[in-house]
Amino acid sequence: MEKQMAENPKTKFLNTRVTPSEHEAFVRKSKRFGEPSWLLRELITGFIEDRISVKPPVTTKEELYVK
Predict the structure, then answer these.
(1) pTM to 2 decimals?
(2) What is the domain extent for residue 35?
(3) Rounded to whole angstroms, what are the CA distances from 50 to 16, 33, 47, 61?
(4) How far apart are CA 38 and CA 2, in angstroms?
(5) How far is CA 65 from CA 50, 53, 55, 59, 61, in A?
(6) What pLDDT shows up at residue 50?
(7) Which is deepest, 24, 31, 41, 48, by most CB within 10 Å?
(8) Which of 17-21, 38-42, 59-63 has the lowest mean pLDDT?
(9) Distant-in-sequence, close-in-space partners of 21: CB < 8 Å, separation ≥ 6
């Protein structure tokens, strides 16, 4: 049987560093929706498609948020 390529192969990586407690909390919470990697992909896609809005924290980094 011949293997077929995925319709949209995932060949690029996005990386970021987080604290151990952030990692643990994200993995724990994301398990309700599926694997953490799937949720990260969905967040990225949702951001690109303008389905996700980010609320600025109390102290903002001006370059990240539009007023």
Answers:
(1) 0.67
(2) 20-53
(3) 21, 20, 5, 21
(4) 26
(5) 15, 11, 8, 11, 7
(6) 95
(7) 41
(8) 59-63
(9) none
pLDDT tens digits, 12-28: 999 999 999 999 999 99
- Reference 26, options 58, 10, 35; nearest CA is 35
Q: What is the pLDDT of residue 55?
A: 82
Q: Would you say residue 29 lies in a domain?
A: yes
Both tokens of 35, joined, read 């694997």
In a domain? residue 42 = yes
pLDDT at 65: 58
Q: Is residue 12 part of a domain?
A: no
Coil vs helix vs strand at 20: helix
The encoded tokens of residue 15 equal 């990386």
Total tally of structural domains belonging to the chain: 1
